[in-house]
Amino acid sequence: MNQANVDLIRRHLQLETQGAYDEILADMTDPPEYFLPALSDEPIRSREGVSAIHHMLFESLQDISIDIVTIDANDEFGFAEVVTSGVHVGEFMGIPGTGKKVNLSSCGVFLFRDGKIQRESIYAEKSEFLRQIGWTEDLIPPAQAS
Known about the structure:
globular, alpha+beta, Nuclear Transport Factor 2, Chain: A, 5-stranded mixed sheet, 146 residues, 5 strands
């Protein structure tokens, strides 16, 4: 185990709950990489793109918390299994806020370089988020679904 990299992941997750976007980017290489398969088949490879994703994800939830279930890291990579929860209040992937509480399990895989996060890949089930906010996978409100 590489405790420094475990601590880096913990700090990263804490900064996300605080919406501390500049500090998040300071802990990432330049350029950073952020991969969220639920949004795109390709990773984002720019500071502006990573910042935009963090803003979308964490400004759509109020009272956000990220609870770590399992975490580990070595010199090259690490992972964190987490439960992210909050109230869906802002637009997320074109879905307006619903006011519903969500609890989404996910796994983050982190690659490290020179004491920083080079790449963050987040694996989460998009349909679980949609179910919790009451929308179908096609983003049709349940009242309008056939």
